[in-house]
Amino acid sequence: MKFYIINGPNINMVGIREKQIYGTMDFNQVIELIQSESIQRGIEVECFQSNHEGTLVDIIQDAYFKNIDGIVINPAAYTHTSVAIADAIKAIAPIPVVEVHLSDIKEREAFRHHSYCAPYCIEQIKGHGPQGYIMAMDVLIKAIGEKQ
Predict the structure, then answer these.
(1) Which one is predicted more confidently, 103 or 94?
(2) Annotated binding-site residue? 38
(3) Which of 59, 66, 91, 141 sees the fewest Cβ atoms within 10 Å?
(4) How far apart (Å, rounded) are the C-alpha atoms in residues 111 and 47?
(5) Which range of residues forms the domain containing residue 91?
(6) Residue 102 is labelled as binding a ligand
(7) What's the pTM value of the predicted model, to 2 decimals?
(8) What is the domain-level CATH number for residue 18?
(9) Is 52 labelled as part of a ligand binding site?
């Protein structure tokens, strides 16, 4: 099984910005945690981060053409603004996608409450910090296992 782990704008700044919201674990530590946990689960992951919407769309589409089994995505600020990313997720169905947020977007400013991506994802995990990525991988493993 192979998953893409996709991170949107400013996620590379976790551990630096707004530590009271995003925690103190830096981006490299988050990626190390994901990679370590994926090895324990016997899955391969490829991790991406971009501050550019089009690049994120390209990566999502790439998952389809490379027969990736599932995607964990933290669209970050694009969650609330990007129809293009939502459409890319919709276009790659039936690849399952889980949306992750380090913070609980429902507990933050009103403009962060809406996700354009959520309707096309099998689940949204929010407010669990970096552990949310691990939870998302487990959701994908279960969903893929149920299909087989």
Answers:
(1) 94
(2) no
(3) 66
(4) 28
(5) 2-147
(6) yes
(7) 0.93
(8) 3.40.50.9100
(9) no
Token pair of 138, please?
Answer: 């487990």
Q: How is residue 17 written in tokens?
A: 């910005």
CB 42 within 8 A of CB 1: yes
pLDDT single digits (tens) 24-34: 889 999 999 99
What are the residue numbers of the active site? 22, 101
CA distance 69 to 43: 10
In the chain, the number of structural domains is: 1
Q: Is 108 annotated as a binding residue?
A: no
Phi, psi of 95 (to 5 degrees): -65, 125
Contact by Cβ (8 Å): 105, 112: yes
**With 70 as the cut, is the pLDDT of residue 148 above it?**
no
Let me know the angle formed at the C-alpha of 22 by 19 and 25, rounded to the nearest 5 degrees. 80
- What does the alpha-carbon distance between residue 36 and residue 9 come to, in Å, rounded to a whole number? 23
